[in-house]
Each structure stands twice: as C-alpha cells, then as structure tokens.
Amino acid sequence: MNEEEQVFVGHGIVILNRQGRLFVQYDAGGIATRWVEAEISDEEARKAQLSERAAYEVLLKVQAREQR
To answer: Given this model, what pLDDT does residue 30 score?
Structure first.
C-alpha cells in the first residue's frame, strides 16, 4: 500500500510524508513545469515551512546534495 500524506503545500513546494520518510517536491524551473522530488530531514521540513526564503534555502541545500 502506498501511504502518502501531504504535510505542507506552499512557498512553491509540497512536503510529503511517505511511510515515515519526508520528501519535498518542487518545480525545477525552465520553460515547462518539471516536478523534482528529494528526500529531506525533519529539520529541513520544519525550516521550509517557515517562509518562502527558508524554503528557497532548503531547496538550494537539497539541490547541492543531489548533485554530488
């Protein structure tokens, strides 16, 4: 069973809880919408919900981590 719950929607992101693991979904930009998903920590999820700026900072950190 695919149990998924939307924890937060706003600031240009969606935070999902999927079987106890947190994921952030966001538009990667460009001409067409392309949704990207990455796993995040509880701390990153809390921060991303604070403000648009905080969400942006979390996305920068996630993108840097994903490029490694």
So the answer is: 82
Q: Do 7 and 19 contact (CB within 8 A), yes or no?
A: no
What is the CB neighbour count within 10 angstroms for residue 40? 23
Question: Facing residues of 26 across strands?
Answer: 13, 36
Backbone angles phi, psi at 27, to 5 degrees: -80, 125
Instruction: Please tell me the predicted confidence (pLDDT) of residue 68.
Output: 80
3-state class of 66 per DSSP?
helix
Contact predicate 42/22, CB 8 Å? yes
- In the chain, what percentage of residues exceed pLDDT 70? 97
